[in-house]
């Protein structure tokens, strides 16, 4: 059977069995994750499924033709409060359309992410909102397109030229943070980095460097920090003893900024009066920290709503061109930033 003929009709389990040169019963055992199948046979059958585009959806083809009114949402870290706020925005937008969310945590692992995407496809979700993990290859989007599974990238993107995307003007947020600190008299400003490298990481770092260079400031003062507690108590000391003698730091996230503030407190340096710290995202932790954190608000709930709107639009108009919705940021000044301390 030619590839054109396969596309003309739905691929069956018998087609998969013939492609893999096994019996239909063996192919069925692979589908049902039976431990009775040898690993080599399992891999051969799964490879045949990939080549043929076979979908096991626990129902007849007629069932797949109708909408399931479910949307898959795949995030890389459920423990991060940012994704909880984004999810609230997604659910709010989808509720009005009578749709519900199926949520999954990829745990920043590409293999987990692809497995989850496959499972959601098998269960007939109408589309997926995906925050890609670091290391995601563009081929994943091509695979979803081949499956005719609508995907919207949120917060991070694998490709800027294909697939809908709802994100944040990270570079604009960094400009606001740098301008705020410069207006307070800070000239040596560090950037707190850390965690997996993805598009949001690269855009925040590039935005910081561009904003510093545009104002004639050195963008080369960086410090590698954990993305969550426990936090090394020597982090503040590394900045205090840095040759550039920074008086402020902009952190990749609010959690990182709050932990760095604790490190300075442990070192006996008053955050704000002695050293200024700016967080990013303006989550609840920014208001709860002491001192309260100055932060760049990225409005994850609005990003979630935008991603849901893009998906609903795609479901209504499958052939429309790809779209990008970029949310603006706003700096929220609080107690963790103050005038630069005098230096000898």
Count of beta strands = 12
The whole-angstrom Rg is 24 Å
Name of the CATH homologous superfamily of the largest domain: Response regulator
Q: Average pLDDT, to the nearest integer?
A: 90
Helices and strands: which structural class? alpha/beta
Please outline the major beta sheet.
Answer: 6 strands, parallel
Strand order of the largest sheet: 2-1-3-4-5-11
- CATH architecture assignment of the largest domain: 3-Layer(aba) Sandwich
CATH topology of the largest domain: Rossmann fold
Under CATH at level 1, the class of the largest domain stands as Alpha Beta
User: What share of residues are in beta strands?
Assistant: 15-25%
Order of helices and strands: HHHHHEHEHEHEEHEHEHEHEHEHEE
Termini Cα gap: 81 Å
Low-confidence stretches: 1-8, 59-65
Sum up the overall morphology in one term: elongated
Describe the structure.
It is a single chain. This protein is α/β, with parallel strands linked by helices and 344 residues long. The chain folds into three domains: 3-52, 434 Repressor (Amino-terminal Domain) (Orthogonal Bundle); 68-168 and 301-327, 3-Layer(aba) Sandwich (Rossmann fold), CATH 3.40.50.2300; 170-299, Response regulator (Rossmann fold). It contains 14 helices and twelve strands. It has a six-stranded parallel β-sheet with strand order 2-1-3-4-5-11, sandwiched between helices. A six-stranded mixed β-sheet has the order 7-6-8-9-10-12, with helices on both faces. It is elongated, with a radius of gyration of 24 Å. It comes from Amaricoccus solimangrovi. This is Substrate-binding domain-containing protein.
